[in-house]
Amino acid sequence: MSKCDVCFRNCDIPEGGTGWCHARGNRYGGIVPVNYGIVTGLALDPIEKKPLNRFYPGSKILSVGSFGCNLNCPFCQNYEIARAFSSGEDSEGCKDRGKAAGFKNDPEILYRDDDGLHRLNTRSVSPEELAGMALELKDRGNIGVAYTYNEPLVGYEYLIDCAGLVRKNGMKNVLVSNGCVSRDVAEKVIGAVDAANIDLKCFTEKGYANLLGGDITFTKNFIESAAGRIHLEITTLIVPGLNDSEEEIRREAEWIAGLKGGEGVNVPLHLSRFFPRHKMADAEATDVGMVYRFAEIAREYLKFVYTGNC
User: Fold this and answer.
1) How far is the C-alpha of 113 from the C-alpha of 8, rounded, in Å?
2) Which terminus in the chain has less CB density within 10 A, N or C?
3) Is residue 3 included in any domain, yes or no?
């Protein structure tokens, strides 16, 4: 049995098993990212889609995602990859972080829904290959690589290995994450990236613990550590029954504004409209007027507030 210390869950994982996130396993005498180099999504996106509105606006970025997540959001927009798992065969890339074993295996990655099990389309991409792809796309407006789609920090080793090569090519690294990881992982990743959009799901301990299965303290710690060191933007999806109160959005905006002794007033906040999805497929979409009203409240504290999905 080995303990994973990447996030608040601190999973005890038996040899050959995987943790709650499905992305980390006990292999080769320790905890390794079993999703290392397994790509479920790869696209050249506008930077604003991350969303990052004040980091090289108008540019594009090569976006890459794998599988696995350490939260259990009932409104997840990417649950197929967030809760996906390996059928048993690991990517050889997870051994020694891909250096020794190469990328020969294409393991079967599955997800489950009401209709049963389904296989995801995947491909194995080494850090060298990903950095090369990013460079080849430079003439199409690409500025680097964004680690996104699933929760990239449950396989942070791949991010760090890729980021170093991307930087050597003079390009940028962007993180899109829930930020719900240990201080040690946060420090490693913040030092490897140039910008991040952190998803602050709500602004109550109860909401994180009861509905998301997470710990808001970890996300807040990540944001506090990143503020002033990299370009930082924050996203909050306004979900009915989770965070749809004026009081909560006011407290969140005030907290963001107070980061780094008041420099947080310059941190952009994205307030997005929820649409029915996953376990909340029968819920009502967030009222557009509510999103706009919350944005006006946030603007009492912050200089840059954007609305999305409206």
Assistant:
1) 26
2) N
3) no
